Amino acid sequence: MSINLQDWIQEADLVSMQKAMSSGECTSEALVLAYIERIHRYNPLINAVLEINPDALEIARNLDLERNTTGSRGPLHGIPILLKDNIDTHDRMHTSAGSIALAESFAPEDSFIAAKLRAAGVVLLGKANMTEWSNFMSNRMPAGYSSRGGYVLNPYGPGKLFVSGSSSGSAAAVAANLAAAAIGTETAGSIIGPASQHFLVGIKPTVGLASRSGIIPISISQDTPGPISKTVTDAASLLGAIVGIDENDKATWTSPHRTFHDYTTYLDRDFLRKARVGIPRHYYRSLDEERLSIMESAIEVLREQGATVIDPVDLHLEQHTWNNDVICYEFKTGLNRYLSNLNSDMPVHSLQELIVYNQKHASSALKFGQENLIRSELNALNEVTYQLKRQEYNHPAVTQGIDYALDQHGLDALMLPGDIDGMYIAARLGYPLITVPAGYSAKGTIDADGDSTQGPFGVVFSGRAFSEPTLISIAYSFEQATLFRRPPDLGELM
């Protein structure tokens, strides 16, 4: 082998890995071994990976043999990918949503997207830690904590920097180069937030683009899986692999003719020359001086690259609040359905049984409480009142939200800061988002000597439903003009 894998896989992208395997410079088995070695060495510092797939090496060997005999399946053949711990895999890995109640749970079958990834030749390397129950258990639970896995830490500053969102383990692992990429899930900010805080690219697809079958749910109207990676190119490749129509997820029935199996065709370096981007200033108001400076610099990049920037843009919706009744109803309904299908030897098969289990094991299961689980169990909506409240909840977002702003100014996208505040409107409508690294900030991070410690920050591009091709083009053009991504220095943490 002519390359030193331990050095090379740090920041290697999927295209480079595929070329190296095709040329014989490395194998999928060697890649898996290299990542497993890095997980054993660095994961204790950041706690991002819950478990390694015990079959990963055998899968990689079989894919290497297949490559040499019948050829490659495509751009993801032999690539090691992590999955968030709420995504079912029918193998020797557990699926627990970070809960000790499901720590021994094996899924009865693959989730739709796990099956799609296997078909594309991906090696499912392991499961990533996450905020327990996708951060819908307690308002007091910190991002990145689970009773099964403990605290996820940001490799750019463990214990000092925010990890954000429930896909924090997926993001921290990719940032630390413990896997080539990962799949997370988002209800409201849980892909985009962690990707932004770990200097990564994250795509939250339109709800209905990728199936939720076999994913432990929060909200049927807002949940979606999506890729987290080091580059826009890698994220686009992964997105194409997980989209598709699933007869078991009605949301995907709306996506025929709006789904593409190769989003890399939209990697247009010069797209910003013809783009129109709006700046919703309401979501910039709470930024500290340094992060506001990062955003102002990003706006200048847009202009320098030839984009037409409309600043400011108003959405007339900024003060409209989240409706907990709707989300609690969806969570209870979806979780009861999921838990009822678990193996009979599992200790919980309903939300009520989960609440009781947590109370009985409070010392380990209830470090931060479970008020959201209880609130959901007590939710009194029926299907009729739920539909009425959901319509009431969504109507302002439809009439005064993203489409309204884009239509008013003839925009391709909005540009938001990489925190979670600006993501709720897109979440409520099931609309897509993509984040790209934009700069470093020292906000809220002071080391033991009282000195500021820098941390990552991203920009987020928001568009209308099924506008992933446009958002990918904008994000790629911005990325190539800036190339802000740089890895954490894990050597300093040893």
Automatic annotation (TrEMBL):
User: Taxonomically, which superkingdom?
Assistant: Bacteria
Is Hydrolase set as a keyword in this record? yes
Q: What GO molecular function annotations does the UniProt record carry, in alphabetical order?
A: amidase activity
Any one Pfam family match given in the protein's UniProt record, by short name: Amidase
Residues in domain Amidase? 31-417
Known EC number(s)? 3.5.1.4
- Keywords in alphabetical order: Hydrolase
Entry-linked SUPFAM superfamilies: Amidase signature (AS) enzymes
Q: Does the keyword Hydrolase apply?
A: yes
Q: What class of enzyme is it?
A: hydrolase
InterPro entries linked? Amidase_dom (IPR023631), AS_sf (IPR036928)
| Protein name in the entry | Amidase
Organism (species): Brevibacillus choshinensis
Q: What is the lineage of its organism?
A: Bacteria, Bacillati, Bacillota, Bacilli, Bacillales
